[in-house]
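seq/struct pair 1
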Amino acid sequence: MSSELHDILQEQSENISSINREAEEESKGTQFLSFDVGGEEFAVNILSVQEIRGWDNPTFLPNAPVYIKGVLNLRGTIVPVMDLRNRFSFKNAQYSDTTVVVILKTKNGEKERLMGCVVDGVSDVFNFQESNISEVPDYGSGIDSRFTAGVMTVDDHAVTLLELSNLLSLDLIKHPYTGASHG
């Protein structure tokens, strides 16, 4: 076999291997972190998770909505902390050993925004095909539909995917200093 033919076959073999690796990654889907909030399971894209911290009382902010618990200092960055149980109007928000703050990030134009979200506990990291995410049915729940991006069926149970760009938007937090309307 000529060296030229050998080089062509080698290049094609590498191309096929690359295509197979890409197809394998694509078949695995996107990774999501799921967590428990008020007995319900929610998820976010794993790439939006900055870190997970144990529960510690944040510094109180006067005039903040009841679901904004305060702020915490994350290595020099001041991060607001939102209790998702209060935000979604779940009753009996208890703080236990499994209560954690998931530090989430989203982009607002060119600027990256961080927000800590208090959850009852972290459940799992799983892969899921984004093309299989269903729309959230309109069933009159207490959760604002702007905060949900869809529903996934994982191991025979529903997991609600959160829409972080809206959930973490200061415009949607009813606070005297955000310019949001009060209703």
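seq/struct pair 2
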Amino acid sequence: MQELISLDELNQNSVSVVTRKYIEEDGTKYFAGDINRRVYVNSEGGRQEISKELAEPYLSAVMAVWGDTSTVEIKSGVR
């Protein structure tokens, strides 16, 4: 089984990574199972998470849009 990865709604502040499993037979893709979606924000923590979880060349594509610094600040304890 293979995996199809899509970068959805990629912008300077976030990205939604969509993954789907499929098999290919005679040039036709047959999808199996659920669609998985994981959202990452361009924060210090989000950049660490995505670098551990997303493979190349997708990671490089995200980082090309995000640049060298985070744009989102996550404040803990704020309600």
